Amino acid sequence: MIKIRTVIPSFAVGVALVLASAPAALAEESVPGVAASVPEEISSQRADYVPQSGGAEGASLLAYPTGCGLVVLSYKGNLDAVGSVASSCPYNVTQIKHKVTIDRSRWYGWERLAENGTSAYETTSHGTIVSWYCGDKGTYTYKVVGQGEINNAGQWSTAAAYDEARYDC
């Protein structure tokens, strides 16, 4: 299982941060630019455990390698609903793949607005952004789901997180 923690960085409204399974000391270290505690008004937001999914043909995908992490942001850009996902490791990995989607809450459920997928090779970090023009659309809750996969010397691992934000475009 991967623990999702919601924290507030100095540059965004909200962020979902996933730290890979690691020694407790690593998970408790402070992250530069991120507040040490979660303000009361958002403390109930996105604090869940997400089970790992199984891979093809019964092969099991592992959680992100120790020390690697995944961050998902949902925020309003000028006249756009914007979502981003970023993965980072303290060492070079073979490949990082992302898929990021942005949905909005409707009376009938979640409406898919946009998605984007990208890959990077031989890197320590990778980021992917998706946006959707929301000018004059009204006030909605937007959900960004970010999924990441890391190939570290032939061993694939995965992580996923989401973030929601409500705003008027």
Describe what this molecule looks like in 3D.
This is Secreted protein. Keywords: Signal. It is a single chain. By secondary structure, the chain is mainly β. The protein has a single domain, classed as Immunoglobulin-like. It is built from one helix and nine strands; from the N terminus they run E-E-H-E-E-E-E-E-E-E. Strands 1, 2, 3, 4, 5, 6, 7, 8 and 9 form a nine-stranded mixed β-sheet that branches. Strand 8 and strand 9 form a beta hairpin. The longest helix has 5 residues.
Task: Break the fold down into its secondary structure elements and pairings.
Layout: E1 2-7, E2 15-19, H1 24-28, E3 49-50, E4 62-63, E5 69-77, E6 80-106, E7 109-133, E8 139-152, E9 155-168
Parallel strand pairs: 4-9
Antiparallel strand pairs: 1-2, 1-3, 2-5, 5-6, 6-7, 6-8, 8-9
